[in-house]
Protein backbone atom coordinates (compact mmCIF):
# COMPACT_ATOMS: atom_id res chain seq x y z
CA UNK A 1 0.00 0.00 0.00
CA UNK A 2 1.25 3.46 -0.93
CA UNK A 3 1.68 5.54 2.22
CA UNK A 4 3.73 8.33 0.67
CA UNK A 5 2.17 11.73 -0.02
CA UNK A 6 1.93 12.73 -3.65
CA UNK A 7 4.44 15.23 -4.98
CA UNK A 8 3.54 18.66 -3.67
CA UNK A 9 4.43 22.11 -4.87
CA UNK A 10 6.72 24.31 -2.86
CA UNK A 11 4.25 27.16 -2.64
CA UNK A 12 3.10 28.11 0.84
CA UNK A 13 -0.53 27.57 -0.14
CA UNK A 14 0.09 23.99 -1.26
CA UNK A 15 2.00 23.21 1.93
CA UNK A 16 -0.78 24.77 4.00
CA UNK A 17 -3.43 22.68 2.26
CA UNK A 18 -1.51 19.45 2.85
CA UNK A 19 -1.01 20.46 6.49
CA UNK A 20 -4.73 21.24 6.86
CA UNK A 21 -5.61 17.77 5.55
CA UNK A 22 -3.28 16.08 8.02
CA UNK A 23 -4.60 18.18 10.90
CA UNK A 24 -8.18 17.39 9.89
CA UNK A 25 -7.39 13.70 10.29
CA UNK A 26 -5.90 14.43 13.71
CA UNK A 27 -9.05 16.24 14.84
CA UNK A 28 -11.27 13.40 13.65
CA UNK A 29 -9.16 10.92 15.62
CA UNK A 30 -9.53 13.12 18.70
CA UNK A 31 -13.25 13.77 18.56
CA UNK A 32 -15.06 11.25 16.40
CA UNK A 33 -15.50 7.51 16.03
CA UNK A 34 -12.78 5.66 14.19
CA UNK A 35 -15.22 4.50 11.52
CA UNK A 36 -15.82 8.12 10.49
CA UNK A 37 -12.18 8.47 9.44
CA UNK A 38 -12.64 8.35 5.68
CA UNK A 39 -11.07 10.45 2.95
CA UNK A 40 -14.44 12.10 2.35
CA UNK A 41 -14.77 13.06 6.00
CA UNK A 42 -11.16 14.25 6.17
CA UNK A 43 -11.70 16.43 3.08
CA UNK A 44 -14.90 17.84 4.58
CA UNK A 45 -13.20 18.59 7.89
CA UNK A 46 -10.24 20.21 6.10
CA UNK A 47 -12.53 22.35 3.95
CA UNK A 48 -11.26 20.99 0.64
CA UNK A 49 -12.81 18.92 -2.12
CA UNK A 50 -12.16 15.20 -2.28
CA UNK A 51 -10.42 15.82 -5.62
CA UNK A 52 -8.07 18.29 -3.95
CA UNK A 53 -7.31 15.80 -1.20
CA UNK A 54 -6.29 13.18 -3.75
CA UNK A 55 -3.93 15.67 -5.35
CA UNK A 56 -1.93 15.54 -2.13
CA UNK A 57 -2.49 12.03 -0.78
CA UNK A 58 -3.32 8.76 -2.58
CA UNK A 59 -5.35 7.31 0.31
CA UNK A 60 -6.26 7.59 3.98
CA UNK A 61 -3.23 5.60 5.06
CA UNK A 62 -0.87 8.11 3.47
CA UNK A 63 -2.54 10.88 5.46
CA UNK A 64 -2.18 8.92 8.68
CA UNK A 65 1.46 8.13 7.91
CA UNK A 66 2.08 11.85 7.42
CA UNK A 67 0.40 12.52 10.77
CA UNK A 68 2.61 9.95 12.52
CA UNK A 69 5.68 11.47 10.85
CA UNK A 70 4.63 14.95 11.96
CA UNK A 71 4.26 13.94 15.59
CA UNK A 72 7.55 12.00 15.55
CA UNK A 73 9.38 14.93 13.99
CA UNK A 74 8.01 17.27 16.63
CA UNK A 75 9.27 14.99 19.41
CA UNK A 76 12.70 14.61 17.82
CA UNK A 77 12.95 18.39 17.35
CA UNK A 78 12.15 18.92 21.04
CA UNK A 79 14.79 16.39 22.09
CA UNK A 80 17.43 17.93 19.83
CA UNK A 81 16.58 21.43 21.09
CA UNK A 82 17.03 20.25 24.68
CA UNK A 83 20.34 18.61 23.82
CA UNK A 84 21.62 21.79 22.18
CA UNK A 85 20.67 23.99 25.14
CA UNK A 86 22.99 25.42 27.75
CA UNK A 87 21.28 23.80 30.76
CA UNK A 88 23.08 21.33 33.02
CA UNK A 89 22.75 17.61 32.38
CA UNK A 90 20.24 16.92 35.16
CA UNK A 91 18.09 19.81 33.92
CA UNK A 92 18.29 18.35 30.42
CA UNK A 93 17.15 14.94 31.66
CA UNK A 94 14.23 16.59 33.46
CA UNK A 95 13.42 18.51 30.26
CA UNK A 96 13.42 15.24 28.30
CA UNK A 97 10.89 13.85 30.78
CA UNK A 98 8.78 16.96 30.32
CA UNK A 99 8.98 16.58 26.54
CA UNK A 100 7.71 13.00 26.81
CA UNK A 101 4.82 14.14 28.98
CA UNK A 102 3.97 16.98 26.63
CA UNK A 103 4.07 14.67 23.64
CA UNK A 104 1.52 12.38 25.30
CA UNK A 105 -0.73 14.75 27.22
CA UNK A 106 -0.94 17.85 25.01
CA UNK A 107 -3.38 15.86 22.85
CA UNK A 108 -3.86 12.63 24.81
CA UNK A 109 -6.57 11.01 22.71
CA UNK A 110 -4.62 11.63 19.52
CA UNK A 111 -1.44 10.22 21.05
CA UNK A 112 -3.22 7.02 22.09
CA UNK A 113 -4.87 6.61 18.71
CA UNK A 114 -1.55 7.02 16.94
CA UNK A 115 0.05 4.35 19.14
CA UNK A 116 -2.38 1.87 17.58
CA UNK A 117 -2.38 3.30 14.07
CA UNK A 118 1.40 3.27 13.88
CA UNK A 119 1.36 -0.51 14.23
CA UNK A 120 -0.90 -0.85 11.18
CA UNK A 121 1.26 1.19 8.83
CA UNK A 122 4.31 -0.10 7.00
CA UNK A 123 6.77 2.42 8.42
CA UNK A 124 9.03 0.10 10.36
CA UNK A 125 12.33 1.35 8.86
CA UNK A 126 11.33 4.95 9.60
CA UNK A 127 10.49 4.02 13.18
CA UNK A 128 13.88 2.37 13.59
CA UNK A 129 15.67 5.41 12.17
CA UNK A 130 13.84 7.71 14.58
CA UNK A 131 14.61 5.41 17.52
CA UNK A 132 18.29 5.48 16.57
CA UNK A 133 18.38 9.27 16.30
CA UNK A 134 16.59 9.66 19.61
CA UNK A 135 18.90 7.14 21.28
CA UNK A 136 22.00 8.89 19.94
CA UNK A 137 20.85 12.27 21.23
CA UNK A 138 19.69 10.99 24.60
CA UNK A 139 22.83 8.88 25.04
CA UNK A 140 24.98 12.01 24.83
CA UNK A 141 22.94 13.67 27.59
CA UNK A 142 22.78 10.60 29.82
CA UNK A 143 26.50 9.82 29.53
CA UNK A 144 27.41 13.42 30.27
CA UNK A 145 25.39 13.07 33.49
CA UNK A 146 26.34 9.48 34.31
CA UNK A 147 29.58 8.49 32.54
CA UNK A 148 29.13 4.83 33.52
CA UNK A 149 25.98 4.58 31.39
CA UNK A 150 26.28 2.93 27.99
CA UNK A 151 24.17 3.28 24.83
CA UNK A 152 21.72 0.67 26.08
CA UNK A 153 20.98 2.90 29.07
CA UNK A 154 19.42 5.53 26.81
CA UNK A 155 17.24 2.92 25.09
CA UNK A 156 16.19 1.50 28.45
CA UNK A 157 15.32 4.93 29.81
CA UNK A 158 13.21 5.72 26.74
CA UNK A 159 11.42 2.37 27.08
CA UNK A 160 10.80 2.86 30.80
CA UNK A 161 9.39 6.35 30.34
CA UNK A 162 7.31 5.33 27.33
CA UNK A 163 5.75 2.44 29.25
CA UNK A 164 4.98 4.51 32.34
CA UNK A 165 3.52 7.42 30.35
CA UNK A 166 1.43 5.16 28.12
CA UNK A 167 0.05 3.22 31.07
CA UNK A 168 -0.88 6.47 32.81
CA UNK A 169 -2.61 7.76 29.68
CA UNK A 170 -4.53 4.52 29.07
CA UNK A 171 -5.80 4.45 32.66
CA UNK A 172 -6.89 8.08 32.46
CA UNK A 173 -4.35 9.54 34.86
CA UNK A 174 -4.31 13.34 34.84
CA UNK A 175 -1.85 14.16 37.64
CA UNK A 176 1.11 14.97 35.43
CA UNK A 177 3.02 16.50 38.35
CA UNK A 178 2.92 13.23 40.27
CA UNK A 179 3.66 11.31 37.09
CA UNK A 180 6.70 13.50 36.45
CA UNK A 181 8.03 12.69 39.92
CA UNK A 182 7.58 8.96 39.31
CA UNK A 183 9.40 9.25 36.00
CA UNK A 184 12.27 11.05 37.71
CA UNK A 185 12.49 8.30 40.33
CA UNK A 186 12.51 5.66 37.60
CA UNK A 187 15.15 7.38 35.48
CA UNK A 188 17.52 8.42 38.23
CA UNK A 189 16.99 5.13 40.04
CA UNK A 190 17.97 3.30 36.88
CA UNK A 191 21.12 5.42 36.75
CA UNK A 192 21.94 4.33 40.29
CA UNK A 193 21.07 7.57 42.05
CA UNK A 194 19.05 7.58 45.27
CA UNK A 195 15.65 9.25 45.52
CA UNK A 196 15.32 12.76 47.01
CA UNK A 197 18.64 14.29 46.15
CA UNK A 198 19.18 11.66 43.51
CA UNK A 199 20.49 14.10 40.92
CA UNK A 200 24.19 14.80 40.84
CA UNK A 201 25.32 18.40 40.75
CA UNK A 202 25.98 19.68 37.25
TrEMBL record:
This protein's record includes keyword DNA-binding: yes
Keyword field: DNA-binding
Domain of life: Bacteria
DNA-binding region: 38-57
Pfam families: TetR_C_15, TetR_N
Alphabetical list of InterPro entries matching this protein: Homeodomain-like_sf, HTH-type_TetR-like_transc_reg, HTH_TetR, TetR_C_15
Segments forming domain HTH tetR-type: 15-75
Keyword rRNA-binding in record: no
Name assigned to this protein: TetR/AcrR family transcriptional regulator
Amino acid sequence: MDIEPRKQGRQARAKATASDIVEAAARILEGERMDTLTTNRIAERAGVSIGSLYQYFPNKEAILASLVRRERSNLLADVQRIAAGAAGTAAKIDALIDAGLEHQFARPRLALQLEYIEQTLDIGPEAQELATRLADTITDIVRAHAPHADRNAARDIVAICHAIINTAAITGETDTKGLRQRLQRAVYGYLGESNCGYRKAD
